[in-house]
């Protein structure tokens, strides 16, 4: 009794609770399980019945639809307006083919307004053949009624074999049948739709079926067909859900149309046979179900002679004037047999489990009761940050309440410690890491609030980095001239004196001050709470880990700032390398980032699911700044080439000097002729004509050098003609040359002076071979490990004068254009050689794929659109749009917004750039925002966005 006065023994409490809970649970589960299984089985029966209705409807549809289709086709046939039997018999193959195509059709017939009648019946059963006394091999019977010249009806029966050979012809004067009096004829004559009769027993074949009839298109006759539904009853036999399930198809008058036992459906009355009624069928469960008028498709319980049944009525849609239905009666004992077996099994398992848990509960109660008392004290010390005490003592149940409180506190503390550790190890941003650690630390230590101050070494002050639960912390504390031992006094003076604070210095691995952690301790009553030594030690240890994390993140941020500065420095150096492309490496990243942001912000359409993490966004920005870093290898004289003869200077001056020589040669020839006694007028005329020709030829060469217009074949031919003119060189052209020039002339013997030279020449020395500098861009090059697929020009450069002047468009030769395009090759090679960290691994591909095209015709790797990511496609659009609108190119005028967008629209239509991204580029207005920031006012013209986007739907150019 003493033990019970202190509390209830845990062993007894646990055992009793387990037994009682298991009893209640087992009873509830058994009851709910049985009710659930019963409901599920009844519902499944209803669903199965509905499916059965669908199946029967489908089988009826397969029975009637082909017949109805054939009937509609026959309504267009010429047999409807034939007026004699021979003409009708000519259409016999067509009628027989309908019977062959659909085995369920028993006969096809035509009734005429004058009382004539023609019927073709398929004789498939031996009983029917015997009843009709048909000849051997008979397959079809043709019954006809035709008017003779006196207006009397003549009846004939004709028997045919399968090949429609006439086997026998019988005149039947007693064959009397007026189709006009039949319901199918009357109903079809009054309607332009196919009519369907009620099911009945066919007189000739004793089959259950129905008649379909349709008026001919010209209204001259009515065509009918007999369709058998005998097979429907046999097929229903396979649809029983249980062995004693009863099924029947009845019409609106409860006449049985189909039942698995066909003999019970047919009632013999003398020579006639009719369909049985539901009561005559002799199935009490179906008769009772028909009298209930239960809702269609819903299982309904009822009783027949003390036996429980579930009945379901399912309507049929296309039989017996839409009033037919399937009646299904299922014995409840068979339907719920599975539920009862499951109830018995669950009861047995529950009993066995209850006995097992009874013993387990008794043992468990004894084992739980022993350690709880001592464990409460130990866990209390653990919650107070004392991890040194061992665990493993006995306890009593009265200690459970204290244990619950302590365990709750301990679990929260451990949870916060885990969160602190996770934040220190995973959070990359310094401000987020400090805020997360401080918030968890305040919650774990149950202090009132806290703050973190970080040291600014340049300004010699502590700046508030984050705070938790407080607004009275000063934003900064100057520490210039203050010793580190005086920091506590400084904080006491700066902070609220009504509170009580604990300050912990944050130091790096070199014991240098990084900042200070401040915790505001709670008060207990009127006395301020003094932190215990374990708490102080824990906070100091945690502050050490936080200091290391702070130092690491400050180093990472400093390295990232340094990396960003170096990358921008490289981009600025590339822009500064040429006065004509300055700003390109700066503008493209900004434009690309603007378009990429629109794709990220999209909430519907093509890019609704497109997202990027901060790391992926930073990776893209790095790639955008470095997208043209390979241009550092591109010669300025090629990038800035404004005329065709320009290298490091415009070589047109050399050509002009040769024209000057020829000019003076004309003058010399004139004076030489005068000195030799020539006629002055003729000599002057020749000189002036020569000089005029020189002026005209030079003007043509100079104009061709500009490269402003497309060079025609006749222009190139004229250049060659001009180049054939000769002038005399008197000086050695091998003096003062570089080593490379000397090597290129090594294979050419020197000419004797004076040497005759062409006015415009393509010399061997003008062609600079690749040598060891041949780039690995060809597909089969073993050095090509980047997947380049570019055509390599035959030489590194060709400075031939005629070769350059004959450039048809622009100012660049094939070799120079390759040299410019090679910058993207060098970009990929240079960036791939960098030891990039994992989060920057895609920088080379993003940077180097902005000249690829969606159709795979771009360079340097001929990548198709599906091989490029969305950021790579964004880069392509940004690079092209910046180049089109740039005002610092020597070889073209800047284009307006509308001109640039039109060009881009054609490129999107031709699958050179991504059409969806271009549509987003236009609809989001990125081009306008970019234009306001970077373009000249005269370029900001009005843009018809609908007209621009309509270009995307035009057919592709050939």
From TrEMBL:
The record ties this protein, via CDD domains, to: HDc
Q: Which UniProt keywords apply?
A: Membrane, Transmembrane, Transmembrane helix
Q: Which PROSITE patterns did the record assign?
A: HAMP, HD_GYP
Q: Which GO terms describe its molecular function?
A: phosphoric diester hydrolase activity
Q: Which InterPro entries match?
A: GAF-like_dom_sf, HAMP_dom, HD/PDEase_dom, HD_GYP_dom, Sensor-like_sf
From the UniProt record, give one GO term of the biological process aspect: signal transduction
* Membrane-spanning parts: 12-31
Gene3D superfamilies per the UniProt record, alphabetical: 3.30.450.40, 6.10.340.10, Hypothetical protein af1432 (1.10.3210.10), PAS domain (3.30.450.20)
Q: Which residue ranges does the record assign to the HAMP domain? A: 366-419
Domain HD-GYP positions: 724-937
| SUPFAM superfamilies the UniProt entry points to | GAF domain-like (SSF55781), HD-domain/PDEase-like (SSF109604), Sensory domain-like (SSF103190)
Q: Which GO terms describe its cellular component?
A: membrane
Q: What is this protein called?
A: HD-GYP domain, c-di-GMP phosphodiesterase class II (Or its inactivated variant)
Q: Which organism is it from?
A: Pseudomonas panipatensis
